[in-house]
């Protein structure tokens, strides 16, 4: 079998393709983006016509994948952890409908928040939805677990969550491929009512899901991804989940691990193996990346102090783990790291020179000068960096789409001027419905949709808003006379300032579209051609 050198994210994509994938549905988000990009660039996937276009958001991605599963084919959904909040309605309900063709939901968590708003742990979502989880510890397992995930999903007839974290997604290692499988034929579910979640059917399905928990646990108990390794020293037993297993191994390069170790890669937890290690050892150390979910389950409310981990300070309560954290928890002593070289010290991110967002902010700052601080409700994208010095241009950034709705809420409270700043991709991800609320209530807000023809922050993926923003705004009901487009160049600065000031006097929804191509895409001839074809007035 062929060996490949792959990122964790790419190993998932290759595992899915080899398992007979028919479609990947995703919205970009670090550290999950490379899964879909791998499928998009894969020659065989192109020949097979595997679906791989970006979706508008994570919820539409989840639903489309569920539709493909309904039709009997194998589908993969990919997103970053906060994307699962957006997809949650569809995701949780998909556990009740169940899956027909294999359905794997790959979610990449970002502990330490390298490029995220929080460090939520997707394993909680799977527990909430009551479906199995696979959590690889290395790139080979990322491949193998994805490959197996489709089988598990079809065997158990539910979606399966595949959880990875940043380090695994973004580091490379050799991966051995398995045999390539054919795609499934179209085949409708045996029970044609299972996807109709009317209360009477949903109740029946929910009972069935509860009953299935025993089978999920049995599968975990016998899984090759959950391994119990004996150790002579029973003063400690180590339960180690996902990539934390690697961090532990790095402390024992030249020596045997003295303690019994239970490596967890599949959930629900294998109860018998957990009981065995718990009963055999004097103390238990739980090492897991993310929230202390396993540790909490083992401790319960009435902890007797036997279980150690992130909750009692043996390991840090937040942030990513590393081999040193784990080594210290295992009793190793380390010298403190001496100063970080300047070259690799954390540097604050900044917008690129020549970025249109910067010029839009310069104009906005000047237009708002007389009103003081606090009037700009922004969103998530490269323009969020407008919060930093020297621009100091924005006052909020909460979740995708929140700019328009928060500006609306502040305007409802009588706060003026209330300005929203949102990017093109974020607008079609989840800004459009907020704009509809604002239009319906004739809210007194100005919305700046900073259009750069791409999803800049995550690496220039196609934006669903491409060439459609004015039409969407008109369709939603924004008065045509209050939709403006301009290129936020230095030459147009005064024009933009005057426009913002003029529209502050209008009591209703104004949309201003500062439009300039992202400088990181100017070498993309195909995109340039498509922009010219649009023949948009700027
Ligand atoms: C729910 C959710 N999904 C995905 C992301 C990752 N993400 C951050 S910003 C962004 C989109 C940015 O595109 P756009 O709004 O067009 O602004 P640009 O970066 O191009 O300026 C994405 C996908 C996220 N933070 N939250
Ligand atoms: S990547 Fe594009 S959108 Fe992002 S800062 Fe650079 S020029 Fe601006």
Structure description:
It is a single chain. The chain is α/β, with parallel strands linked by helices. Helices cover 39% and strands 15% of the residues. It has 19 helices and 18 strands. The strands form 4 sheets. It has a 6-stranded mixed beta sheet, sandwiched between helices. A 5-stranded mixed beta sheet has the order 8-10-9-12-13. It has a 5-stranded parallel beta sheet with strand order 14-15-16-18-17, sandwiched between helices. Strand 3, helix 5 and strand 4 form a beta-alpha-beta unit. Helix 1 crosses helix 2, helix 5 runs parallel beside helix 6 and helix 14 crosses helix 18. It is globular. The protein starts with a strand and ends with a helix. It binds thiamine diphosphate and iron/sulfur cluster (SF4). The site of iron/sulfur cluster has 10 residues, from loops.
SSE blueprint:
Blueprint: E1 3-7, H1 8-18, E2 21-26, H2 33-41, H3 43-48, H4 58-70, E3 74-80, H5 83-97, E4 103-109, H6 122-129, E5 133-134, H7 139-156, E6 160-165, H8 166-169, E7 172-176, H9 199-221, E8 227-229, E9 236-241, H10 244-249, E10 261-264, E11 266-267, H11 271-280, E12 283-287, H12 293-299, E13 307-308, H13 323-329, H14 356-368, E14 376-377, H15 402-412, E15 419-423, H16 424-440, E16 445-450, H17 469-476, E17 483-486, H18 493-504, E18 509-514, H19 525-534
Parallel strand pairs: 2-3, 3-4, 4-6, 5-6, 9-10, 9-12, 12-13, 14-15, 15-16, 16-18, 17-18
Antiparallel strand pairs: 1-7, 5-11, 8-10
Helix pairs in contact: 1-2, 1-7, 4-5, 5-6, 14-18, 15-16, 16-17
Thiamine diphosphate binds next to α5 and α16.
């Amino acid at each position: 079998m062929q060996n490949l050198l792959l990122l964790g994210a790419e190993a998932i994509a290759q595992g899915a393709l080899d398992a007979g994938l028919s479609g990947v549905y995703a919205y970009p988000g670090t550290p999950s983006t490379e899964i879909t990009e791998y499928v998009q660039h894969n020659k065989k996937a192109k020949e097979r016509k595997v679906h791989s276009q970006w979706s508008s958001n994570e919820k539409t991605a989840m639903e489309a994948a569920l539709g493909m599963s309904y039709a009997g084919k194998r589908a993969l959904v990919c997103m970053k952890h906060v994307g699962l909040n957006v997809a949650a309605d569809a995701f949780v309900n998909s556990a009740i409908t169940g899956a027909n063709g294999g359905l794997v939901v790959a979610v990449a968590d970002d502990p330490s928040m390298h490029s995220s708003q929080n460090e939520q742990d997707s394993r909680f979502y799977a527990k909430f939805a009551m479906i199995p989880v696979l959590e690889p510890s290395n790139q080979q397992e990322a491949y193998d677990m994805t490959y197996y995930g489709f089988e598990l999903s079809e065997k158990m007839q539910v979606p399966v969550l595949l959880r990875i974290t940043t380090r695994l997604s973004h580091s490379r290692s050799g991966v051995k491929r398995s045999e390539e499988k054919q795609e499934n034929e179209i085949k409708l579910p045996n029970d044609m009512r299972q996807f109709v979640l009317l209360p009477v059917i949903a109740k029946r399905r929910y009972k069935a899901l509860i009953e299935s928990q025993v089978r999920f646990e049995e599968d975990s108990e016998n899984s090759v991804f959950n391994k119990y390794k004996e150790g002579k020293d029973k003063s400690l037993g180590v339960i180690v989940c996902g990539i934390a297993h690697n961090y532990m191994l790095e402390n024992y390069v030249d020596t045997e691990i003295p303690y019994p170790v239970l490596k967890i890669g599949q959930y629900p937890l294998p109860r018998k193996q957990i009981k065995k290690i718990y009963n055999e050892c004097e103390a238990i150390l739980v090492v897991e990346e993310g929230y202390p979910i396993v540790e909490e389950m083992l401790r319960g409310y009435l902890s007797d102090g036997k279980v150690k981990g992130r909750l009692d300070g043996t390991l840090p309560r937040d942030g990513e783990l590393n081999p040193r954290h784990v080594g210290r928890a295992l009793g190793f002593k380390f010298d403190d790291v001496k100063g970080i070289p300047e070259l690799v010290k954390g540097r604050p991110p900044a917008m690129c020179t020549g970025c249109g967002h910067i010029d839009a902010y310069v104009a906005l700052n000047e237009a708002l000068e007389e009103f003081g601080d606090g009037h700009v409700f922004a969103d998530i994208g490269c323009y969020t960096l407008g919060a930093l010095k020297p621009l100091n241009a924005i006052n909020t950034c909460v979740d995708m789409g929140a700019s328009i709705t928060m500006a609306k809420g502040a305007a409802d409270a009588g706060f003026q001027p209330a300005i929203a700043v949102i990017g093109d991709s974020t607008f079609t991800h989840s800004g459009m419905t907020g704009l509809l609320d604002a239009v319906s209530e004739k809210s007194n807000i100005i919305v700046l949709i900073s259009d750069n023809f791409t999803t800049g922050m995550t690496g220039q993926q196609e934006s669903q808003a491409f060439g459609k923003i004015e039409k969407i705004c008109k369709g939603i009901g924004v008065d045509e006379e209050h939709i403006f487009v301009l290129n936020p160049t230095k030459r147009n600065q005064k024009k933009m300032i005057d426009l913002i000031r003029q529209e502050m006097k209008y009591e209703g929804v104004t949309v201003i579209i500062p439009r300039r191509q992202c400088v990181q895409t100017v070498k993309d001839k195909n995109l340039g051609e498509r922009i010219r074809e649009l023949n948009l007035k700027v």
